[in-house]
From TrEMBL, chain A:
It comes from Neobacillus vireti LMG 21834. This is Binding-protein-dependent transport system inner membrane protein. It is a multi-pass membrane protein. It holds the Pfam family BPD_transp_1. InterPro entries: ABC_transporter_permease, MetI-like, MetI-like_sf.
Automatic annotation (TrEMBL), chain B:
Keywords: Cell membrane, Membrane, Transmembrane, Transmembrane helix, Transport. The keyword Lipid biosynthesis does not apply. It is a multi-pass membrane protein. This is ABC transporter permease. InterPro entries: MetI-like, MetI-like_sf. The chain crosses the membrane at residues 9-31, 69-93, 105-126, 141-160, 181-206, 239-260. It comes from Neobacillus vireti LMG 21834.
Length: 310, 273
């Protein structure tokens, strides 16, 4: 109105401090509960830091020891990567199938959506108890059901070969969150696109491959990243369902770090372990993001380009 | 869209199959919790209890200070929810409705914090809370909530970005100050996303196990999740009370979810894009 840009105008009106007042809780929290601890743990990772005596600076010895002189580090890393390699694709596929099912125009979908999501609101403690009881090798219902169809069920939680699978199955029970994210995205695809495709004679499978999947690639990206991060940090179920056993077959990386810190009180070493995983997660996320430019399509991009042409 | 009968049968078949996976474990816990000791430890398993043992719940509840645990869980859940609602709405409003220096850098930083694995900050946070004298109190579980949480702030900001700027400009012309605008105009508008983050936070905090595990030592400070896990750890063979308390622990989040389902479903659709 006065010939100034809108931006300058609103600055004058509200004063410069007001916005910072609004965001100040987060800034304080970020410094005290995130950035401070983050920096401090990096520093700690270069120290021998027992809980009882003084810390001594040891340079990169923690990292050296981790890579060259700690077989458990590699074992735990391997188990965790194996878990992620099974869990992430499985979870994505199940979530996608469920989301497709509950977007079908048939009766009772709301009911099924509720059932599928319900385990996602249950505590890890409860999940571990519920599935621990189902997998119980003496009284468990699962092996009983398997025996009815002539299968001699394995000793799930006692056999090192099977224990990791029990954690996969119990974790996948909470797939509802991811299902819901896919569901709301698929519902947002305009029905006309499918109708047009159907008129052109595209089969449901063809429609799924050519319409549904390309439309939800940003959501797939989001779900891949969040589930990779979650899988690499799985801890609650490991502590409660298997305790890392049998024979350390489920001694996940999260448990390895946790025990180094709170059981063996090697705080500097545990910090180095944690920083290593942080960097792994950063690199993995970056790789996934980089690759995403080839398979993720954003609606806005198409629109923007369309506008430019005009 | 019309669907063939065959198509429908396949869909319901799959739905039924998946329902077994998601529903049966709940049913099995309920059935187990109502059995007698002899019934629960029989093989082949008896599916139904002969006479439902409702007293199992009372016995289980009285065998440990579960009342205290429940109280602690309620305190932590209520306080953190309050803290998140206040702090996140303020911060999200700041990010969504103002232009200021370093805004974009700060917001990217906020989003980046979501990627930090919790075990990187776990040890220094423990030491920090120890320094404050907060170990073995509920404070480490409660206080950080009053400084906001990146994901909730993000959700609220996305919501606030879609509201036209005219709203506060009109109020400014009428002489309202910035905080009045926030409380009188925007807080009521934010009702739906605020309910969403309250629900998400209630579920998260009620179910949290690792936080209480690290910070709480005395039984009198335990939350329900930690108390149940500790009980199970010591009394592995007491399946009846374990099942009974597990059910008690599941009920509140399931009820909250059933009531707030609409907000969760709608909130999910807005969060990604």
């Amino acid at each position: 109105m006065f010939g100034k840009s809108k931006k300058a105008n609103s600055y004058q009106l509200v004063g410069r401090k007001v916005p910072y007042l609004f965001i100040s809780p987060w800034i304080i929290g970020f410094l005290v509960f995130t950035l401070g601890p983050l920096a401090f743990s990096l520093v700690m990772s270069f120290f021998d830091w027992p809980i009882t005596s003084d810390a001594t600076f040891i340079g990169i010895d923690n990292y050296k020891k981790m890579f060259t002189n700690d077989p458990q580090f590699y074992k735990s890393l391997w188990i965790t990567l194996k878990f992620a390699a099974i869990f992430v694709p499985l979870n994505l596929v199940i979530a996608l199938i469920l989301a497709l099912l509950i977007t079908q125009p048939v009766k009772g979908m709301k009911f099924f959506r509720t059932i599928f999501y319900m385990p996602a609101v249950v505590s890890g403690v409860a999940i571990s108890i519920i599935w621990g009881w189902i997998f119980n090798s003496e009284y468990g219902i699962l092996n009983y059901i398997l025996s009815l169809i002539g299968i001699d069920g394995p000793r799930w939680l006692i056999d090192p070969k099977w224990a990791i699978l029990t954690i996969v199955i119990a974790s996948a029970w909470g797939v509802g969150t991811m299902m819901l994210i896919f569901y709301t995205d698929i519902k947002g695809i305009p029905a006309e696109i499918y109708e047009a495709a159907a008129i052109d004679g595209a089969s449901p499978l063809r429609q799924f491959i050519s319409i549904t999947i390309p439309s939800i690639t940003p959501t797939i990206l989001f779900n891949v990243i969040t589930s990779v991060i979650a899988a690499l940090q799985q801890l609650t179920l490991v502590i409660l369902l298997t305790g890392g056993g049998p024979l350390k077959s489920t001694y996940f990386y999260g448990l390895y770090v946790f025990n180094n810190a709170f059981k063996h009180h090697r705080l500097g070493y545990a910090s180095a372990n944690a920083w290593f995983m942080f960097i792994v997660i950063l690199i993995l996320t970056m790789i996934i993001f980089k690759s995403s430019s080839t398979w993720v399509f954003y609606e806005n991009e198409v629109k923007k380009e369309g506008k430019k042409k005009k | 869209m019309k669907m063939s009968k065959k198509h429908k049968v396949i869909i319901y078949g799959l739905l039924g199959l998946f329902s077994l996976y998601f529903l049966l474990p709940f049913v099995w816990v309920i059935l187990s919790a109502l059995k007698t000791q002899a019934e629960v430890f029989s093989f082949p398993p008896k599916i139904f209890p002969k006479v439902p043992q409702w007293h199992n719940f009372v016995d289980a509840w009285n065998s440990q200070p579960f009342g205290t645990y429940l109280m602690n869980s309620v305190i932590v859940t209520v306080m953190t929810t309050l803290g998140q609602l206040i702090s996140c709405s303020l911060v999200a409003y700041g990010f969504a409705r103002y232009d200021f220096k370093y805004k974009n850098i700060l917001f990217v930083l906020l989003l980046a914090t979501m990627m930090i694995p919790w075990d990187v900050t776990m040890i220094p946070l423990y030491m920090e809370f120890n320094l404050f004298g907060w170990i073995n109190t509920l404070k480490p579980l409660i206080v950080p909530a009053f400084f906001g949480s990146a994901y909730y702030i993000f959700l609220l900001r996305q919501f606030l970005m879609n509201i036209p700027k005219d709203l506060e400009n009109a109020a400014r012309i009428d002489g309202a100050n910035e905080f009045q605008i926030f409380f009188k105009i925007f807080v009521p508008i934010m009702k739906a996303p605020l309910i969403l983050i309250a629900v998400l936070n209630i579920l998260l905090v009620w179910n949290d196990y690792l936080g209480p595990l690290i910070y709480l030592q005395d039984q009198s400070k335990y939350t329900l999740a930690l108390g149940l896990a500790a009980f199970k750890g010591v009394h592995t063979l007491q399946i009846l009370p374990i099942m009974a308390i597990t059910l008690v622990m599941i009920v509140p989040p399931v009820v909250v979810f059933l009531f707030a389902q609409k907000y969760i479903v709608e909130g999910t659709s807005g969060s990604i894009k």
